[in-house]
Specification:
Blueprint (H helix, E strand, L loop, with lengths): L23 H27 L5 H16 L16 H5 L11 H4 L3 E6 L1 H4 L18 H5 L17 H9 L6 E2 L7 H5 L18 E7 L7 H8 L7 H9 L11 H10 L6 H13 L5 E5 L16 H24 L3 E3 L19 E2 L6 E2 L9 H17 L2
Parallel strand pairs: 1-2, 1-3, 3-4, 4-5, 6-7
Length: about 400
């Protein structure tokens, strides 16, 4: 592909005269040209002194081209074809999507699609769409009546989810698709969602899509299993919890822990790779590079001063560090693909589990801020509002 700023057309040529055949005007022109050479050379030296070392070669190339432009009429030998960083080869490999400057008009012209997991679907925020709150099993009364069970669907799409607020504020509503599903991993982007009565999430994308919001990666990292293994069920200890995820599985390979292997599967050995890289690439392909993609990270679950009953303060701090690590990797991957990363960490400060005003549910049976799995450790309706506010703030920042 040829990036913006590429130029076509032929090379301009200049007619040369033999030395000594011109008049006084030619001598004056030669003097001016020599002054031009001196100025250009001085400028190049100054730029090299001020510029970073990595920029030096590019500046030298640019300087050589500038000198050649000035000296070409003097009758000297032809200038060599100087290779400049960012030249023809770089232009051929340029990706205009990465440098695209989105406007609000661009982003809101078509349809909005929410993709991903429970943090996008609104698990924990209650008020679920009944069609996404079906176990696939009858109650005893329905069995007595001989009813056929409705197909299973536990995607738990909440009426309080950020999706509805972003859609109502910026889109026509009818153009929006809410595909996020509780429990979804990257594999559910490609396939039916965990046996739910759902199409693959990618089927909601098309060239009409102008904005995509993605919340994905936590289930691939097995965060629910991390929480369960760290809870004091069956007498587990801090060492049991942290060691289970960080101890090498292969004594010969220090990076063979469960946590590291999950990171490798999700992100691959480099930016843009792994399961998530394939998803991001497909989003761009299915939308024809016409959609602005916002990747939303995960709030840190626990208040820094947490010292509760379910987890120890050490376990809570360790899980927060893993959450921060996940967010940093998500940011790296998002930016590699030209997407925008929205980090909710700062917005949730003072509102984690164990705070005076939690926006994340903790484990329990009673109370406004307690819930059992799968709702436990998910944002409340107020937490979803905070995510919607972050996306709204990003959209308002666009020209």
């Amino acid at each position: 592909m040829i990036g913006p700023g590429g130029r076509g057309g032929g090379r301009a040529t200049t007619q040369r005269r033999r030395p000594g055949t011109g008049g006084p005007d030619e001598a004056g022109a030669a003097t001016l040209e020599w002054v031009g050479v001196t100025l250009v050379a001085s400028l190049v030296v100054t730029m090299l002194m001020l510029g970073a070392p990595g920029v030096a070669s590019a500046l030298v190339g640019l300087g050589q081209r500038a000198v050649c432009t000035v000296t070409a009429p003097l009758g000297g030998p032809d200038c060599p074809d100087v290779a400049v960083a960012g030249g023809a080869e770089a232009a051929a490999d340029a990706d205009p999507y990465l440098d695209r400057r989105w406007t609000r008009a661009d982003v809101t012209r078509g349809g909005l699609v929410f993709l991903g997991d429970s943090y996008g679907s609104g698990e924990g925020a209650r008020d679920y769409d009944p069609a996404t709150d079906r176990t696939g099993e009858n109650t005893w009364w329905e069995d007595l009546q001989g009813r056929t069970p409705a197909p299973r669907n536990m995607c738990h799409r909440s009426g309080n989810a950020a999706f509805h607020q972003v859609s109502a504020h910026w889109f026509a509503g009818d153009n929006s698709t809410f595909a996020s599903c509780s429990g979804a991993r990257t594999v559910e982007y490609w396939d039916e969602t965990q046996g739910n009565d759902e199409l693959a999430q990618r089927e909601s994308l098309g060239e009409h899509t102008s904005m995509v919001v993605v919340s994905m990666g936590g289930n691939d990292m097995q965060f629910a299993a991390v929480l369960m293994s760290c809870a004091p069920v069956g007498g587990s200890s801090v060492e049991d919890c942290i060691g289970h995820w960080t101890d090498p599985q292969d004594p010969q390979d220090p990076a063979s822990s469960r946590w590291d292997q999950n990171l490798l599967d999700l992100f691959g050995p480099g930016p843009g790779e792994g399961g998530l890289g394939a998803v991001y690439a497909d989003i761009r392909a299915r939308t024809g590079d016409g959609a602005h993609v916002v990747v939303v990270g995960y709030p840190l679950l626990f208040d820094p001063d947490y010292d509760g009953i379910v987890f120890s303060a050490e376990e809570a701090a360790w899980m927060n560090r893993r959450g921060a690590e996940l967010n940093e990797r998500l940011r790296e991957h998002a930016e590699h693909h030209g997407f925008t990363f929205v980090d909710p960490t700062e917005a949730f400060e003072g509102h984690g589990v164990g705070s005076d005003d939690p926006w994340i549910l903790t484990f329990g049976f009673w109370g406004d801020h307690r819930a059992r799995p799968p709702e436990a450790y998910h944002p409340t309706a107020r937490g979803q509002q905070a995510v919607a506010d972050l996306i709204d703030e990003h959209l308002r920042s666009l020209p």
